[in-house]
Design a protein that fits this description.
mainly alpha; 9 helices
């Protein structure tokens, strides 16, 4: 076994037992066995990172601070639903069939989210949120996609804790150890077999993509959805390669995994967006807000109409003078 192999996490690291922690730390006894899985923690941290980065990029464009929260209320739940639906559709045999709980497709806490489904419905939710707050959708999506790629990097770390979605066997020194008792461990392979840590490859690819996309977006002032186009191309290229070496079960079409087709489609869509938007919009976006939806200035009062604490005294003096003049 290579000395640099990545050890599999122990079962204790796969979740945080909130009930036990509250009992040990504060002496609280809860009737429920409540655990927070490491996978969920990674996803939540990723969402927070994406929101913070997107908020900073939107602020730089002149958008009100934290308006992204109003959009995230629509986008995040829609993305989770879309991610779950796409995963179930591409893994039908895992959720429907003899001896399988017919409601198991709802057990999202057991894992199973697909990024392509999350992107599709999440974008729909983001579009609705943008219409609600008056933001231009292209401005928002260009600001948020680098954060989305960063969030995906955090999410892939969750795959490590779950010991899932790893690649084919390898003899490379950074091979991943997987417990032979794991349901995902391929049959017929001896205990101690090392596998490609595809989650690690994608983490590195995504983080590098964040750096590259942010650099290109600033260097060439990319707007009108062109940053989204770069994201689709970058992620599609990486995912099409990494997906092809994974050993987990997945629906296939013409012998090719569904997510490989989706990755190729993402590349094509990204190229089309970049070409079309480059031809349609040669200048910069006039404003990140929709026409007529710009926020009002906080101080909309003319400086000549401002008042001070002495104005009441002056007004009273004028009134008194008028009264004297009338009496005369």
């Amino acid at each position: 076994m290579p000395l640099l192999s990545i050890p599999s996490p122990s079962t204790a690291w796969q979740y945080f037992d909130l009930t036990a922690w509250l009992r040990d730390a504060f002496g609280w006894s809860l009737p429920l066995d409540f655990r927070i899985h490491a996978y969920a923690i990674c996803i939540l941290v990723g969402i927070v990172a994406a929101v913070l980065l997107a908020n900073r990029r939107l602020n730089a464009r002149g958008v009100e601070r934290w308006i992204i929260i109003d959009i995230a209320i629509w986008a995040v739940p829609a993305g989770i639903i879309g991610g779950r639906l796409f995963h179930v559709v591409t893994h039908v045999s895992d959720y429907f069939g003899p001896g399988i709980d017919p409601l198991s497709f709802l057990y999202i806490w057991e894992g199973g989210l697909a990024i392509f489904g999350a992107l599709i419905l999440g974008s729909v939710g983001a579009w609705i949120g943008c219409r609600q707050v008056g933001l231009r959708f292209t401005s928002f999506i260009d600001a948020v996609v680098p954060g989305v790629l960063l969030a995906q990097a955090f999410g892939r770390l969750g795959n490590y804790f779950n010991q899932e979605l790893f690649g084919m066997p390898t003899s490379l020194p950074w091979g991943l150890e997987i417990d032979s008792t794991n349901a995902a461990f391929p049959t017929g392979l001896p205990e101690g077999t090392l596998f490609h840590p595809t989650f690690l490859y994608e983490i590195l690819w995504n983080v590098l993509g964040v750096v590259v996309i942010l650099f290109l977006a600033r260097r060439f002032t990319l707007q009108w959805g062109k940053v989204l186009a770069l994201y689709l191309i970058w992620y599609g290229v990486g995912r099409s390669v990494l997906e092809s070496i994974r050993v987990d079960t997945s629906e296939t079409f013409f012998g090719v995994r569904t997510n490989v087709w989706m990755a190729l489609a993402a590349i094509l869509v990204g190229i089309l967006i970049f070409v079309v938007q480059s031809r349609r919009h040669t200048g910069k976006e006039p404003s990140p807000y929709l026409p007529g939806r710009e926020p009002r200035p906080r101080s909309a009062v003319d400086s000549e109409d401002t008042f001070s604490e002495h104005d009441d005294d002056d007004a009273a003096a004028v009134t008194s003078d008028d009264a004297v003049t009338t009496t005369r």
